[in-house]
Amino acid sequence: MEPFYMRQDTSIPYFSLKEWEEKFPHLVVGMSARDIHSKEDPDRWNYALHVGEDPGRVVQNREQLLSQLRFPVSSWTCANQVHGTHVHVVDQSERGRGKESQETAIPATDGLITGEEDVLLSSFYADCVPLLFYSPEADIVGVAHAGWRGTVGEIGRRMVEAMESKGASAKTILAAIAPSIGGCCYEVDEKVAHPLLEVLPDASSEVLRPVQPGKWKLDLRQANRQLLMRAGLQPENIIVTKWCTSCHPELFHSHRRDQGKTGRMVAFIGKRKGRGRHG
Ligand SMILES: [Zn+2]
């Protein structure tokens, strides 16, 4: 069964990662969707402050989602994503960074982790792979933005190492790979395939499949799954979505499909205050 469940009980379209939310009632974890009901304004639910976007509307969207998730208005915390591999540990004083403007966002960072309550870690997507993390042992959450550059730079392993430095152990860390472009739609050339093969020399055809000379179909989700297992995660602790952002224009923004003219979904994870780890 698809692990990312489309909520029907809200006015804001988003997916919840049901399994984690049911097991750990203080967790809020999921990913936003496009507005399937609004034909005239399908980019209504854009969450990223990028050039050409009305910042007022983006901030309003963020606040509406926070209110839906029952998180305080000041809890939205995000970074300026640069397709890098830097991981930052968010402390209580950094709560709310980047919510209102790019200037206050955590600079040049693609991975965020925190053990703090009432901090909603958020990062933005239109095809790249969201990696979500939770350590039940250390009660630490994380999110990382893995496009092909982050994937071959092993941002997944860096997230695991950062969580280990905060008391988690790799063999009990849970990871979830959220909606993103699938191997069905992501065609790459040697500029991407070669660095990928350097980091995953034994990549199976499930990860990288030749389609014609100099062209491959790449499944970044499976690549990240294999890299996370190499970093010490148990295969049964890694959840992988089946949703492809490019295949489903009614649900997802897709940079490739829409040739760069698109909004961004948000992947989010946080610990709600006042609820114990076990409900
Ligand atoms: Zn697809």
Automatic annotation (TrEMBL):
<keyword id="KW-0862">Zinc</keyword>
<dbReference type="GO" id="GO:0005507">
    <property type="term" value="F:copper ion binding"/>
</dbReference>
<dbReference type="GO" id="GO:0017061">
    <property type="term" value="F:S-methyl-5-thioadenosine phosphorylase activity"/>
</dbReference>
<dbReference type="InterPro" id="IPR038371">
    <property type="entry name" value="Cu_polyphenol_OxRdtase_sf"/>
</dbReference>
<keyword id="KW-0479">Metal-binding</keyword>
<protein>
    <recommendedName>
        <fullName>Purine nucleoside phosphorylase</fullName>
    </recommendedName>
</protein>
<dbReference type="InterPro" id="IPR011324">
    <property type="entry name" value="Cytotoxic_necrot_fac-like_cat"/>
</dbReference>
<dbReference type="InterPro" id="IPR003730">
    <property type="entry name" value="Cu_polyphenol_OxRdtase"/>
</dbReference>
<dbReference type="Pfam" id="PF02578">
    <property type="entry name" value="Cu-oxidase_4"/>
</dbReference>
<dbReference type="GO" id="GO:0016787">
    <property type="term" value="F:hydrolase activity"/>
</dbReference>
<comment type="function">
    <text>Purine nucleoside enzyme that catalyzes the phosphorolysis of adenosine and inosine nucleosides, yielding D-ribose 1-phosphate and the respective free bases, adenine and hypoxanthine. Also catalyzes the phosphorolysis of S-methyl-5'-thioadenosine into adenine and S-methyl-5-thio-alpha-D-ribose 1-phosphate. Also has adenosine deaminase activity.</text>
</comment>
<keyword id="KW-0808">Transferase</keyword>
<keyword id="KW-0378">Hydrolase</keyword>
<comment type="similarity">
    <text>Belongs to the purine nucleoside phosphorylase YfiH/LACC1 family.</text>
</comment>
